Amino acid sequence: MRNALTAAWRGGEQEPLEQGHMFTGIVEEVGRIVAIGEGALIIEADVTLADTRIGDSLSVNGACLTVTGMRDATMSFDVMPETLRRTAMSGLRPGGPVNLERAVTLSSRLGGHLVQGHVDGAGTVAEITPEGDARLVRVTAPPDVMRYLVEKAFIAVNGISLTVMALDADSFTVSLVRHTYEHTDLGEAYVGMPVNLETDIFAKYAEKLMTGDREGITALTAAGEAGE
Questions:
Q1: Is residue 44, in this structure, part of any structural domain at all?
Q2: How far is CA 170 from CA 102, 118, 137, 143, 186, in A?
Q3: Which of 12-26, 45-59, 148-162 has the least mean pLDDT?
């Protein structure tokens, strides 16, 4: 059963359509939260409403969510408890900004990097330092995120494709050009702000393949020793 907030906003049931998704980390617009609570999120938008329909996937601050309703200049999404546990979305408030990106198509340009919208963990803005027209932003992150980061690696911060400029044991730094902070929610970033983080999927694949190779070698070695 749909939650009361979404049902009241939609004025009726509309079943979503299932489809795949992938994003690039190039934010199309900054939407504004109309309401959040009771497992629902309602966002006011403009650009991303075009060609969007019930069942489409959108990146909302880097989290892939399914559109469950549309009315006037707003869209609604159901937000599962698991999403709230694994992301920084529990800190969103009405009136606040959110980065929005529609899923890419086969004809889309890949201007950033491949982003799944599967948040790996929540980080916290620890420091913001002006550097000319740019802004250096240092973010603390959990070990499960830091393990996949190297200098010049891709990282999605609230759905924004960024490059790791520097890192230490528990944090990394990115540099924001003027266009980025003027056209994303990081333009309103503050120390202590929670952010969604997603690392490069290819780093995870590489780790899995290397682990698998080691396990295979171990198994072959053990079999050979048993046959001696």
A1: yes
A2: 31, 21, 14, 7, 20
A3: 12-26
